[in-house]
C-alpha cells in the first residue's frame, strides 16, 4: 500500500518546513496537475492550422473535406478521452467506458487512414495495409480488454 504523498504536509509543518510536499509517482493521476501546458496548446494550434489548410487546399472535394474534418474531430476526441482516462481513478467503473471510447476512436482513425493509404497502393500492398490495420486493432483490443495488469505472485 503506497501513500499518496511522500511527505505529510502536517509533519513538514511540525518540523518547520514550509516547502510543498513531493508527489509520489505511484499516486493516482488525479493527484497530478492536469492543466493544459503551452506545448499542448501549441500542438492543438498546429493541428487546427494544418487541418484548416488541408480543407482550404481541397478544392471543395467533399471526400477530402470529410476525411480532414473526421480525422480532426476524432483526434481531438481521442486526446480528450485519453486525458479523462488519466484523471479517472483506477477503481472507477467509468474507466472501462472511457477505455472503450478510446479504443473505438483509435480503431476508427486506423480504418480511415488505412482506407486512404490502401486506395493509392497496388493490390498486394493493399492487403498488407489492411492486415497491419487489423493487427493493430486486434492488438489494441487485446491490450485494453483481455490483458490483465495484475502481477502474478512469484512462486518459489
Structure description:
- Pfam families: DUF6490.
- It comes from Oryza sativa subsp. japonica.
- This is cDNA clone:001-038-D11, full insert sequence.
- Keywords: Membrane, Transmembrane, Transmembrane helix.
- Residues 1-31 are annotated as: Disordered.
- It is built from five helices and no strands.
- By secondary structure, it is mainly alpha-helical.
- 64% of the residues lie in helices and 0% in strands.
- The protein has one domain.
- The relative contact order is 0.07.
- α3 (62-87) runs antiparallel to α4.
- The radius of gyration is 22 Å and the shape is flat.
- The chain has helices at residues 9-14, 38-56, 62-87, 94-118, 123-146.
Helicity level: 55-70%
The description of the largest β-sheet is:
none
Structural class: mainly alpha
- Terminus-to-terminus distance: 23 Å
Task: Summarize model confidence as the mean pLDDT.
Answer: 82
Low-confidence segments, given as residue ranges, are 1-23
Number of strands: 0
Q: What percentage of amino acids are in beta strands?
A: under 5%
Shape: flat
Contiguous helical run count: 5
Instruction: Tell me the series of helices and strands, N- to C-terminal.
Output: HHHHH
- Total separate domains: 1
Gyration radius from CA atoms, angstroms: 22 Å
